[in-house]
Task: inverse folding
């Protein structure tokens, strides 16, 4: 459930369900909001689950569970994965070292299960784990003017420069933490975190104080993430092997830790994956899981597709055979084979590149 329903309602929000929570789909004109984010800046309430880990052994505990090194210093974060015994992705998470606690940001609806599973594995370690989703408001600020937007309202330190680092300051009378994101929308990005009871005031300040920022919802966010070539947890990551998705920044191959009884450095023997994630430009918009063909050979499936507001044309992501030697494919839509070209990602050039852009 959103923590600021009244203010969303005042802006004419239409809602949808995501991970068992009620979130904003749009405010009436998602394509217009998309233009605002692409050209200037926009603000969205972000739907995360949050797990808090405290105790003397907190860093070691989480570090032993995930695929990337957990930072030992306050003010830093990392993107990482939890894998099952076969090396497939169970969940993704951002882990931030916030002084005496770690905050783990996970897909919506998964915080409770993760907190429960981790609590069962603490054994004799000095670790306390709890679901903390309802304690916070989290807002994304994205666009080529995102840095100017944050600077126009944040008092105290300057906005952070390095991805997944953060500073503490104030927006108006309210204490906030500002994180420099890994730019998943293909534009400069920040996330602003505050106490849940301050969320309405902080969101109002982000929209109306300093440089104005257009409010936008998850329909617009979906356009931006697809145009940026960013794999999403629900459609591309879950259940797949990281190498298939080309998200190399989530794996520390030198770490050598065990995740679900599998050594991270042995995922697919660090070799060439059997499939790869590509961008497609089909003539019409396909459905999820539409079959992709090279001639008469079935070579993959569509994972996500939409009409790109920036391009005015359909775009899609697809998992296809790794060794394809052609860029000219077809996608089966309503029983018909529709031409589709493999194209370089991102589909749309913005003010930055997504930190999760596939790399092979």
Result:
């Amino acid at each position: 459930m959103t923590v600021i329903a009244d203010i969303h309602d005042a802006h004419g929000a239409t809602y949808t369900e995501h991970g068992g929570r009620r979130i904003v789909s749009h405010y009436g004109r998602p394509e217009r909001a998309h233009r605002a984010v692409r050209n200037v800046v926009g603000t969205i309430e972000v739907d995360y689950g949050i797990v808090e880990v405290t105790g003397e052994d907190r860093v070691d505990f989480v570090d032993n569970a995930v695929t990337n090194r957990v930072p030992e210093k306050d003010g830093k974060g990392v993107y990482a994965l939890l894998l099952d015994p076969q090396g497939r992705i169970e969940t993704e998470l951002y882990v931030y070292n916030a002084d005496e606690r770690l905050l783990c940001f996970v897909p919506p609806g998964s915080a409770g299960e993760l907190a429960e599973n981790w609590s069962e594995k603490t054994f004799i370690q000095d670790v306390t784990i709890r679901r903390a989703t309802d304690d916070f408001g989290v807002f994304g600020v994205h666009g080529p003017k995102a840095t100017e937007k944050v600077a126009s309202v944040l008092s105290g330190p300057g906005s952070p420069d390095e991805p997944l680092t953060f500073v503490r300051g104030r927006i108006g009378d309210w204490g906030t933490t500002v994180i420099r994101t890994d730019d998943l929308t293909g534009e400069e990005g920040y996330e602003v975190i505050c106490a849940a009871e301050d969320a309405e005031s902080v969101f109002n300040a982000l929209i109306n104080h300093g440089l104005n920022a257009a409010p936008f919802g998850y329909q617009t966010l979906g356009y931006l993430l697809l145009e940026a070539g960013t794999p999403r947890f629900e459609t591309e990551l879950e259940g797949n092997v990281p190498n298939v998705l080309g998200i190399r920044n989530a794996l520390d191959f030198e770490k050598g830790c065990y995740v679900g009884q599998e050594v991270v450095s042995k995922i697919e023997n660090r070799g060439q994956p059997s499939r790869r994630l590509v961008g497609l430009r089909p003539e019409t918009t396909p459905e999820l899981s539409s079959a992709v063909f090279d001639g008469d050979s079935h070579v993959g499936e569509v994972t996500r597709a939409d009409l790109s507001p920036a391009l005015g044309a359909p775009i899609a992501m697809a998992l296809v055979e790794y060794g394809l030697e052609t860029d000219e494919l077809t996608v089966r839509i309503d029983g018909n084979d529709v031409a589709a070209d493999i194209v370089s990602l991102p589909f749309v050039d913005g003010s930055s590149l997504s930190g999760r852009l596939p790399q092979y």
